[in-house]
Amino acid sequence: MHSARNDENIFLKFAAIKHYNMPAISFFTESISYSLPQKLKIKKWVKATTEKEGYQLQELNFIFCSDEYLLSINQQYLNHDTYTDIITFDNSEEEKLIISDIFISIERVKENAKTYKTSAFDEVCRIMIHGTLHLLGYKDKGKAAKTLMTQKEDEYLVYRSEFGLV
């Protein structure tokens, strides 16, 4: 016997399974007030970037924070006593799978934007894709690696336009 109640239960089970298998890109703040604009479009752009590079995105957390907060992470986990704009933690134990936390100093982003004469939004996108590229295997130590990283950043910043990000 077919009933609307059974249809509803099947729908709820399917929705739960589908939600469980969906990649999660989340945005958080620590010790700073910041609201990232165009979150949904950014999620689509970052997800498409990872897929284009042949990776599966399971969980990616962007944590926007202050200089001091990121400095304490840099000191505690990397033994570096310097300010930085980004620290990426790859938490995945499988190749081609992304599970990560990316910490971004909004104060550094704003400073970089002034230095490089760009908007804070463009700079936060550049920093976000930079961290994502690290998860995709790109490095930035050494001249050749840094050149390739910059080329990839530029490529994916242009790719943003396909998602209405400008």
Which short descriptors sum up this protein?
166 residues; alpha/beta; Collagenase (Catalytic Domain); four-stranded mixed sheet; 6 helices; 4 strands; 19% strand; disordered N terminus
Summarize the model shown.
By secondary structure, this protein is of the alpha/beta class.
Any chance you could write out the topology, listing elements then pairs?
Blueprint: H1 4-21, E1 24-30, H2 39-52, E2 56-65, H3 67-78, E3 86-90, E4 97-105, H4 106-115, H5 120-135, H6 143-159
Parallel strand pairs: 1-2, 2-4
Antiparallel strand pairs: 3-4
Radius of gyration: 18 Å
Helix content: 40-55%
Give the termini separation: 53 Å
What's the number of domains? 1
Major sheet characteristics: 4 strands, mixed
CATH architecture: 3-Layer(aba) Sandwich
Strand order of the largest sheet: 1-2-4-3
Number of strand elements:
4
Q: What structural category arises from helix and sheet content?
A: alpha/beta
The average pLDDT is 90
- The SSE order reads HEHEHEEHHH
Overview of this protein structure:
- With 166 residues, this protein is α/β, with parallel strands linked by helices.
- It has one domain (22-163): Collagenase (Catalytic Domain) (3-Layer(aba) Sandwich), CATH 3.40.390.
- The protein is 52% helix and 19% strand.
- The protein contains six helices and four strands, in the order H-E-H-E-H-E-E-H-H-H.
- It has a four-stranded mixed sheet with strand order 1-2-4-3, with helices on both faces.
- A hairpin with a 6-residue loop joins strand 3 (86-90) and strand 4 (97-105).
- The chain is globular and about 35 Å long.
- The chain starts with a helix and ends in a 7-residue tail after the last helix.
- Residues 1-20 have low confidence and may be disordered.
